[in-house]
Design a protein that fits this description.
This protein is an alpha/beta fold. The chain has helices at about 10-20, 70-90, 105-115, 120-130, 135-150, 185-210, 230-245, 265-270, 285-290, 300-310, 330-345, 365-370, 375-390, 420-430, 460-465, 470, 475-485, and strands at about 1-5, 30, 40-45, 50-55, 60-65, 155-165, 165, 180, 215-220, 250-255, 275-280, 315-325, 345-350, 395-400, 410-415, 435, 440-445, 455. The chain folds into three domains: about 1-90, Double Stranded RNA Binding Domain (2-Layer Sandwich); about 105-145; about 155-435, tm_1862 like domain (pyruvate-formate lyase- activating enzyme, Alpha-Beta Horseshoe), CATH 3.80.30. It contains 17 helices and 18 strands.
C-alpha cells in the first residue's frame, strides 16, 4: 500500500494508526508529491487550506476533511480522521481507539491529577481517542492500583536491571536478542559474558559510591537468567551485593522463567542471595501449544517448578501467560487461566501475542491477520482474562502496549492486594531512574527538576558487548556527570 503526504510529514502518526488496521504490512511512503490519480489501495494525507485524508482500500473509498488547527491539535485530528475512515472501510474498531502510545496509563494519571473520577476518565478517553469503555476502565483501574507505588517513589532512587540474554531454546514468538544455550557458540560465550557483566556491575558500584542515589529495586531479566548454572547465578548476585548498596531495596526480582531451566539448587542460590520475587513463566498450560511454540517442557513440569519455588520459600511469584499463541483455543486459554489461578501466584501477567519482524512467527504473518479483528479469539481471550482475574481477587497494576500486537491489544500485570511488582510499574510509567548492566541494557536517567529523560544503551549482542566493551562504556562518564549534577 502506498501512502502519499502532500505539504506535510505526518508519517509517524499515519503509520501508527494505519497499522491498527493493516498489521504486519509494509508501506511505501511518498512525500511532497501529488499522485496522478493513484489506483488500487492507497492513502493520501493532504494539508492545504484544510486537513484532508483520502483512503482507497479493498475497492472502497472514503475521505474526510477538517479545518486547520495548531500543530498539536492537528496531529490528533489526523489520527481521529484516519481511525474513523479506516473503521468505516474495514469494519474493525480497535479497542484502544486511535491511542497508539505504549503507556496509556500515563494519560489516566494526568486525568486523575485533574480531579477526574472513573466515569469521567472513561468518558474523556472515549471522546478524545475513541477508547472503548472496557479499555478505559482497565486503564483507570490500573492507575488506581499503582498509585500508591508511584506516590511513594523518591526522586534519588534507582532500579538496577541486569540482563542475561540467554535461553535454553528460542521460542517462535521471541524477538529478544537472546541466544540458545544449545548452540556451541553460546555455551562458549557464557563464561566470557559473565566475566564482563561482573566487571560492569563492579564499575557501576564505583561510579555510584559518592552519589546521592540509592538502589530501590533489582531486576535480573533476560532471556532466561536461569539458563546459567547455579554457580554463575551465584557469582552475579554476589557481585551485585558487594558492589552496590542494596540494604534499602524494596524488591529483588529474578526471572526464573522457563520450567526446563529451574532446579532446586538454582532456587536456593537465588533465595540465599536476597531475591524476594521470582517469575515462573509457562506462557500456556496446554502441552500442544507449548510444543507449537518450541518449548521443551510440559504444563505439568511448569506446575512442578512453581511448587518447587514455593517449597524454596518464595512467597512472591509471578507467572506469565500469552493470549493468542499459535494453535491455542479459547477453551485452552480458559483452562490455562483456571490452572494458574489455582496455583495462586501473587502476580499473573497476561501478554497479548506480538508478532515481531525478528521472530520466527513473523514468517506466518499472513495466517495471523485474522487475529486482529474485533471478534478474534485473541480478543475474547483477553476479555476473559479480565473477567476471571477480577473475579479471583486480582487487580491490574501495570499495562503497556506494543506494535504488531494481535488486535492492537495490551499486556497487563495482575496482582493480589499489596503485592504489586514495583519495578514493572516504575519502568512502564518511566517514573524512576534505571541503571542497566549487560547486553541490551537501557539506562534511563530522569532530571528531577524537568522530568526529561536521558537514555544510554549497551550493545545488544553478547559478542559485541564483550568485544567492544570499552567503546560501549564511553557513555558512563556522561551518566556519572549527570548523577553528580542532578543528585549531589
Amino acid at each position: 500500500m502506498t501512502v502519499y503526504f502532500e505539504n506535510n510529514s505526518y508519517k509517524y502518526e499515519t503509520e501508527a494508526v494505519l497499522k491498527l488496521f493493516r498489521p504486519l504490512e509494509s508501506f511505501e511512503f511518498v512525500f511532497d508529491n501529488t499522485p496522478p490519480a493513484p489506483a488500487g489501495d492507497y492513502l493520501r494525507v493532504c494539508v492545504s487550506d484544510e486537513l484532508s485524508v483520502f483512503v482507497s482500500l479493498g475497492g472502497r473509498y472514503e475521505e474526510k476533511h477538517s479545518p486547520l488547527t495548531d500543530e498539536k491539535e492537528r496531529e490528533l485530528a489526523l489520527c481521529k480522521m484516519l481511525f474513523t475512515v479506516l473503521s468505516e472501510i474495514t469494519g474493525i474498531r480497535p479497542a484502544w481507539g486511535c491511542l497508539t502510545g505504549i503507556r496509556p496509563v500515563k494519560k489516566v494519571h494526568a486525568l486523575i491529577d485533574e480531579g477526574c473520577g472513573r466515569d469521567e476518565v472513561i468518558k474523556r478517553l472515549e471522546s478524545t481517542y475513541f477508547v472503548s469503555e472496557s479499555r478505559g476502565g482497565l486503564a483507570y483501574d490500573t492507575a488506581v492500583t499503582q498509585r500508591a507505588a508511584v506516590d511513594s517513589l523518591q526522586k534519588n532512587s534507582f532500579s538496577l536491571y541486569i540482563s542475561v540474554p540467554f535461553c535454553p531454546t528460542r521460542c517462535s514468538y521471541c524477538s529478544f536478542v537472546s541466544h540458545s544455550v544449545q548452540s556451541k557458540g553460546a555455551r562458549e560465550l557464557i563464561p566470557k559474558y559473565v566475566d564482563m557483566l561482573c566487571r560492569e556491575i563492579g564499575e557501576l558500584g564505583e561510579m555510584l559510591s559518592d552519589k546521592n542515589v540509592f538502589c530501590d529495586t533489582v531486576y535480573i531479566g533476560g532471556g532466561t537468567p536461569t539458563s546459567l548454572s547455579a554457580r554463575e547465578i551465584d557469582r552475579i548476585m554476589k557481585k551485585i551485593a558487594e558492589s552496590i548498596d542494596i540494604s534499602r531495596i524494596r524488591e529483588y526480582t529474578v526471572e526464573a522463567g522457563r520450567a526446563d531451566t529451574i532446579t532446586a539448587e538454582k532456587l536456593r542460590v537465588i533465595k540465599d542471595n536476597g531475591a524476594t520475587r521470582i517469575s515462573v513463566n509457562p506462557q500456556t498450560m496446554q502441552d500442544s501449544v507449548l510444543e507449537a511454540i518450541g518449548r521443551r517442557h510440559t504444563a505439568a513440569e511448569a506446575e512442578e517448578k512453581f511448587l518447587l519455588a514455593r517449597k524454596a520459600g518464595f512467597d512472591n511469584i509471578n507467572t506469565d501467560l500469552i493470549a493468542g499463541l499459535p494453535t491455542d483455543s479459547l477453551r485452552g486459554f480458559e483452562d490455562t487461566l483456571e490452572r494458574i489461578i489455582g496455583l495462586s501466584p501473587e502476580n499473573i501477567t497476561v501478554h497479548t501475542l506480538t508478532v515481531k519482524r525478528s521472530s520466527a512467527l513473523f514468517g506466518k504473518a499472513d495466517e495471523m491477520r485474522e487475529q486482529f479483528g474485533n471478534d478474534s479469539i485473541t480478543a475474547k481471550m483477553t476479555d476473559l482474562s479480565v473477567k476471571r482475574l477480577t473475579a479471583a481477587g486480582y487487580s491490574p497494576y501495570y499495562l503497556y502496549r506494543q506494535k504488531n500486537t494481535l488486535g492492537g491489544l495490551e499486556n497487563v500485570g495482575w496482582t493480589k492486594p499489596g503485592r504489586e511488582g514495583l519495578y514493572n510499574i516504575y519502568i512502564m510509567d518511566e517514573a524512576q531512574n534505571i541503571l542497566a548492566c549487560g547486553a541490551g541494557g537501557s539506562t534511563k536517567l530522569i532530571d528531577p527538576s524537568t522530568g526529561k529523560i536521558v537514555r544510554y544503551f549497551n550493545y545488544k549482542y553478547p559478542y559485541e558487548y564483550i568485544s567492544r566493551y570499552e567503546k560501549m562504556t564511553e557513555y558512563k562518564a556522561k551518566a556519572e556527570e549527570f548523577l553528580r549534577q542532578k543528585f549531589s
